[in-house]
Amino acid sequence: MKELVDLNADAGESFGRWRLGDDGALLPQVTSVNVACGWHAGDPATMRDSVELARDNGVALGAHPGFPDLAGFGRRAIAFSPREAADACLYQYGALRGFADAARTPVTHVKPHGALYGLTIREPDVARAVAEAVGSVDEELVVMLHAGSPAESAASSGARVAREAFADLDYGDDGRVVIEPEPQEKDPHKCADQAAAILRGQVTTISGGTVDIDADTICVHGDRPNAAAVARAVRARFAEEGVAVAPVRDVLAARRG
């Protein structure tokens, strides 16, 4: 079992008076947070609040760029070229960076959201383009991509890539996650079991098979109704197993040795 891992959460996904998730309860449980940048969710005030919440909790701050699809929460496919996907990520990173600079806290990583993340899984050229664009801004910036071929393809370009797995999503026999249109509550203990299995290098699929997996960071989705409970259960399981948690940059530094 791995001895060190990042636990990340997608958050900052409220919009105006419409509230989604309990970021105040969730962020103290994680080591990295990915903040929506206004295209699929979020707005300037929410972004500012999320940046300050991450700073005050000592959580590594990342941008969570998605498709321009507020109505569909960024989970509907759009035919972006590799360059368009890369530009979308840079644009939204820049928006978050403004609030981060004002709060005197760094942006350490970028993780595509929803259907844009799915595009990086299906199309290696998109994964590479996004990773190269992120690296062109700052060679220390990390891009989080799906563990397996998407992350490996992007890493081959020389970018700093974190291999991501999921505590609260099912896996298909092809090793890819099964995206839920509308996240429901999940048993926190089963999510903790899956997180522990990931750190042992395998995950059980929806058909009962297993696939190998090598992950640097494990995600909990902030829009799941009981996200904070899931994150607490995962952290508790890590403590039982003697697994330490750290922000994604520290995990990658340890991996490089």
Automatic annotation (TrEMBL):
Q: What is this protein called?
A: UPF0271 protein
Question: InterPro entries, per this entry?
Answer: Glyco_hydro/deAcase_b/a-brl (IPR011330), LamB/YcsF/PxpA-like (IPR005501)
> Which taxonomic lineage is given here?
Bacteria, Bacillati, Actinomycetota, Actinomycetes, Streptosporangiales
Transmembrane stretches in the record are none
Which BP terms from GO are recorded? Answer: carbohydrate metabolic process
Gene3D superfamilies linked: Glycoside hydrolase/deacetylase
| PANTHER family assigned to the protein according to its UniProt record, in alphabetical order | 5-OXOPROLINASE SUBUNIT A, UNCHARACTERIZED PROTEIN YBGL-RELATED
